[in-house]
Amino acid sequence: SPSLLLSFSPSLLLSFPPSPSFSPSLLPPPSPVQFVTNFEWYVQVLVQLTRVENTRHGSLIRDQLMDVAIRVKVLRPFACKQMAALLTDQRLFSAHNVECGISEVLYAAAWIAGEFASALGDDECAAVVEALLQPRTVNLPGHIQAVFVHNAVKAYASLAARLPADAVVVAPKPKAAKKKKKKGEKRKKDA
């Protein structure tokens, strides 16, 4: 009945004893990030793992890079610089690396560099925008391409926001083109 649904409170669930099938071993393990004290070292290790031949742990590396960059604010400028370097690494775009899955790291690299682009210098941010819009990205899986396009816009917006207001050039409105009559056209109409 509707009155029963309206009177339901989530606090009622706390008063019931746990299910006999519940076990603490079913809880997810703690994140490895909670044991790290030097986050720059951790990011460097993850970046170096992308260089291991034939590794199939791209999605794990991606998840860890995003986890640490999102959680640790003071690490973001360093992580952005590392991700900008990954985005310019031609090796990650090879067909073999796309096939074995290490290109998944590019998802994290694009997301982190776009989301925290304000931590990059002007030249680094411009390099990120250029790397995200390279034609070679068409060989990447669709979900990575989508992140590339989305974060290229974010990085470009961050770069444009740094320009002084008078540096933005507005294109003039096009003037209406006047039609010129050719000598031959006038004669044909007169005839």
The low-confidence parts are 1-17
Percent range of helical residues: 40-55%
- Determine the number of helices (DSSP H or I, runs of at least 4 residues): 10
For the largest beta-sheet, the strand count, sense and barrel status come to: none
Mean of residue pLDDT values:
79
Rounded Rg: 27 Å
Order of helices and strands: HHHHHHHHHH
**Beta-sheet strand percentage?**
under 5%
> Which secondary-structure class do the elements indicate?
mainly alpha
Assembly level: single chain
Q: What would the principal axes of the Cα set say about the shape?
A: globular
How many strands appear in the DSSP assignment? 0
Termini Cα gap: 89 Å
List keywords for this structure.
191 residues; mainly alpha; globular; disordered N terminus
Describe this protein's structure:
- The protein has 191 residues and is mostly helical.
- Helices cover 54% and strands 0% of the residues.
- The protein is built from ten helices and no strands.
- Mean pLDDT is 79; it is low at 1-17.
Question: In a few lines, what is going on in this structure?
Answer:
With 191 residues, the chain is mostly helical. It is 54% helix and 0% strand.
How would you summarize the topology of this molecule?
Layout: H1 2-6, H2 11-15, H3 39-49, H4 58-71, H5 76-87, H6 95-100, H7 104-115, H8 122-132, H9 142-161, H10 183-190
Helix pairs in contact: 3-4, 3-5, 4-7, 5-7, 7-9, 8-9
